Amino acid sequence: MTLARNFPFFSILLCLVGSVLTSVLKPKAARALTVIISGVVLVLSAFTLRYALAMDAAEPFMMGHFPAPWGNELRIGRLEALMATGISGVLFVTLLAGFYHMPAFVSDKKLGLYCIMVDLALGAILVMLYTNDLFTAYVFIEIMTIASCALVIVRQNGHTLVAATRYMIMNLLASGLVLLGISMLYGITGHLLMEPLGRSVRQIYETGQYMEPLTVVIALITAGLAIKSAMFPFHAWAPDTYAFAPPMSSAILSGLIGKAYIFLLIKFIFRVIGLDIIVASHIDSILFACGVTGMIIGSVMAISQRDIRRMVAYSSVSQIGYIYMGLGMGTEVGVAAALFQMLAHAAAKSLLFLSTNELTSVSGDRKRFHYLHGAGYRNPVAGVVFTVGAMSLVGIPFTGGFVAKLYLATAGMPLGGWVRALVLVALAVSTLLNAVYYLHTVVSIYRRAPAEIDYPPSHRVPRHAAAALLISMLMTVYLGIGSGPIMRVIESGLKMFA
Amino acid sequence: MWQALYENLEQTVAAILFGIGFTILLLQRNMIRKIIGLNIMSTATYLFLASMGFIEGRKAPIVMDGVTDAAAYINPIPAGLVLTGIVVSVSFTGIMLALTVRLYRRYRTLDIDQIALLAKGEDLP
Amino acid sequence: MSKRRSDWAQRPQARFLRWMREGYGALDDEIISAVAQPAAQRPDAEALEEHDRLIGTHRHEREMALDRLANYDLQRWANTRGRKALTRLYVLLALLLGASLIYFLLDTVAYMPRFGQVAVPTNNEVIARYIEKGLEETGAINIVAGMILDYRAFDTLGESTVLFVAACAVLILLRIDLDDQGQPMQQLIAEGSDDRHYEPKNDRILQGSAMVLTPIILLFGIYVLFNGHLGPGGGFSGGAILSSGLILYLNAFGFQKAGRFFTYKIFMWVSFFSLGFYGVAKAYSFYMGANGLNSGIPLGTPGAILSSGLIMPLNIAVGLVVACTMYIFYALFRKGGL
Fold it and tell me: Structural domain boundaries of chain A?
């Protein structure tokens, strides 16, 4: 009975109470408090990870005086702690690197409200990582949806309004599907917590009674979470949202919030339904097909963009495709590779969005590639960081993206004939396409600037922001070099899941 | 199948309503109608949930005369879930309406396709 | 009269009465004169016209933008036969998707447990404990209140947070920023983000019925709040009733009077205290529960108003959050501020 087992709960509570406290503070204090909260959550999550590494089996944490089928519960396991550490780490550096240019996008009066949204988004992400209760997950999905919509609309122009409307419509549709799925699941099992749910589902699978509703439940919840995480055919809302939101919001939305939905889906697959039942229902094949298509089409769309922010946004669609390809393999190795890809993408994408903003702001806020020539010299830090992030997403050795692709390819090896071929071909084609647009961008920011365009005098990047960008770059490189221990944690964590 | 559907009449109605809401959401271009579609969808889910809690011949889950026998009251859980759902739908309806107000002020139309065209047009010289 | 003490004017009751009466001061005369004068001479008429004109120019600009677009590829594409065919295809596909969704759901419903039966999966050990032990473990007569505020209190904390986050999101969208002088930004008002031009005039019937109804509604709301653990009701319904009373008052007497007791600051502080209290109180009981300690909160005699531990204070906190959120929604939609 150590204090460390309370840390997940403390970090969630800190976010919720902190967000309420933020509402009565002045904007400057609110900003500081938000950064501090994410830092404290990072420390708490790191301690939780240390605690989780020492234990043999995952532990439930009662939220109240009542045990599993009656009261709410959290669950502390290695995978949850690892993801929480990764996500809060990325958020912490994102806030450090991104907050100083928020005044360009948000009026001073609304900065306090923006900080509330960031806190609540972090809290909701943590709940989705740790919760052991499907209905709690639904409630916090809604908090996350609303908070992320607000993260987009703090920048108030026509584009963000339209993008946020699209975002809300798609996401609320998805929430409706998830809620209907959860209520059907409750109707056929009588439980809402994951362990008893898992037992009841196993029973249903064995006796065959209520098998038809169960299949529909799997389809509904998977579809809902897939829409929310911008899986390929449902990605229509994503590029506009990521391209027009303030860069820090884009980093949070694409890098972190999407990941929380996918993690919840993995939890649902492993802990509620069971991997073998998913494979038997062939939902995994659909996810696989969507993932592979998304990898290719997302990259093709990214190539056709003329605007750097939209290009980075479309590349998210292709990177999410990798994750779903790993999930769709229907094996534990595949899911482990997908989880690693989630971490690698979270780290790389947030730094890409932030450095893109640095690059465009030294080019007079023009996002077309033509104007970006020479931006890598005007802001050297952002240039280097962008290059490393791009290398990671292309999959160049010594970066996180490379290792993720390697694991995905390895996971594809034991699969049967044409699936293996499909995995390898899709990875190769997608890597090639990624290389086309990212390396083209890297080359163009290091080209000599045309003389006829006069650029604004470059502003100084605050030292802490530059340092944060470099730290997040180091994180990406670390994921590429020190991937072994992380992968072992992921694999043992997945074993604990079942 | 028809017999079963008739016996589960509440859930049948809920399923049809859910589908209607979904189709309205896809088909209508008017923002207000889309919001109505969303609300029909969520209300259908509440009907679905609430119908699962009912047990023939039992009373609402409020302890009367000290009787605490599980066979005396209906299932309290769906009531709690529906309550949560209603609160959530109030919140998102508020936000969607606020978005609609802002869009209307800016573009003077409620047609989302028209609005998207106008927003693209803002970039033109 | 003579019974009144000499320091009466300083006493809280007197101050309260004066505060009550203040609402019927200069403002009413202004409004009465506004109603009495013909429309053309009203002071707002000019502002109204200006307002309409601005909207008109806005619309004109939008139409110009549309015209410009007409020459643009996009718009051309919008009028081609291909686009029309595509629209028709989309409609067809949407209908097909909706129909197939209904079909699959109906197919599922046919296999769901039968309605109203005793032997259904939901009728299991979970609800047995909620019903049989609920009174003893939570002290609440209303089993649903016991469930949502004690057994599954974390969900309800999330629920109140949903309301809070929604209120903040609507604030981001609709609140009119004040400029440096503390005045609303003119261009936002011109955009039509405010309908204070359409404030209700002194309406005898409305005001009279509001004067009768508002106290009753508020009292009823408070009753529902305080009896959440004893009967049907609780924080959410009580809060909704409270806010409906406030909105009725606002509609009858206008923003200036309502603004005397409900401002943005008050909204923020009330939310802060209610949610903060909820969070801290529940954190205490979660922490105690998770670590196997006794929380030491007495449950009291079931049926008494002061019973069932934290449930009543939590109901009040939730009710305040709900009332504030509903009221602020209304106020923001009406005029973009409080």
Answer: 9-270, 282-498
**The two three-digit tokens of residue A57, written as one number:** 């089996």
The residue among C8 and A105 whose pLDDT is bigger is A105
**C319 and C209 part of one domain:** yes
Q: Do the Cβ atoms of C123 and B55 come within 8 Å?
A: yes
- Alpha-carbon C110 to chain mean position: 38
Using alpha carbons, select from C310, B79, C268, B83 the residue that is nearest to residue A139: B83
Inter-residue contact C302 to C312 (CB < 8 Å): no
Closest C-alpha to A441, from A378, A338, A360, A381 = A360
C-beta of residue C57 within 8 angstroms of C-beta of residue B96: no
Determine phi and psi for C154, rounding to 5 degrees. -65, -40
Of C106, C115, C333, the CB nearest to B15: C106
Distance, CA of A254 to chain centre: 6
Task: Determine the distance from the C-alpha atom of residue A493 to the mean position of all C-alpha atoms in its chain, rounded to a whole number.
Answer: 19
Closest-CA residue of C relative to A7 is: C287
Beta-strand ranges (E) seen in A332-421 are none
Kindly report the nearest CA distance between residue B41 and chain A, in angstroms: 7
> Residue ranges of the alpha helices (H) in A99-157?
111-130, 134-153
Alpha-carbon gap, residue C240 to A69, rounded angstroms: 31
CATH number at residue B82: 1.10.287.3510
CA distance C222 to A192: 32
Q: Report the Cα C299 to chain-centroid distance in Å.
A: 31
User: What is the C-alpha R_g of chain B?
Assistant: 21
Please state, in angstroms and rounded to a whole number, the distance separating the CA atoms of residues A404 and A410.
Answer: 10
C76 and C184 belong to one structural domain: no
How far is CA C22 from each of CA C17, C242, C265, rounded to the nearest angstrom? Answer: 9, 23, 21
pLDDT 10s digits, A215-266:
999 999 999 999 999 998 888 889 889 988 999 999 999 989 999 999 999 9
Structure tokens at A206: 């064995």
- Cα separation, B19 vs B4, in Å, equals 19
Helix (H, G, I), strand (E, B) or coil at C17: helix
Residue A36: per-residue pLDDT: 95
Give the number of other CB atoms < 10 A from CB of residue A383: 21
Decide if B65 is inside a domain.
no
* Contact (CB<8Å) C122/A213: no
Q: For the whole model, what pTM was predicted?
A: 0.90
> To which H or E segment does residue A76 belong?
strand A73-76
Number of separate domains in chain B: 1
> What stretch of H or E contains A59?
strand A59-62
Does residue B37 sit at the A interface (CB-CB below 8 Å)? no
Expressed as residue numbers, the domain containing C81 is 51-114
* Band (C285; pLDDT cuts 50, 70, 90): confident
pLDDT band at C28 (very low <50, low <70, confident <90, very high): very low
Task: Identify which of A302, A320, A321, A319 has the alpha carbon closest to the alpha carbon of residue A311.
Answer: A302
Q: Tell me what pLDDT residue A484 has.
A: 87
Torsion sign (Cα): B77, B83, B84, B86: positive
Average pLDDT over residues A71-82: 91
The nearest CA of chain C is from the CA of B68 a distance in Å of: 5
- DSSP H or E stretch at residue A358: helix A332-361
Domain span holding position B77: 2-59+71-121
Q: Residue A140: which of C113, C158, C285 has the nearest Cβ?
A: C158
- Would the ipTM clear 0.90, i.e. be above it? yes
C202 vs A71, residue with greater confidence: A71
How do residues B63-111 score in pLDDT, each as one tens digit? 887 777 888 889 999 999 999 999 999 999 999 999 999 898 888 888 8
b/e B48-66 (16+ beta carbons within 10 angstroms → b): bbbbbbebeebeebbbeee
Higher pLDDT, C77 or C207: C207
Flag if A149 and B107 touch (Cβ within 8 Å). Answer: no
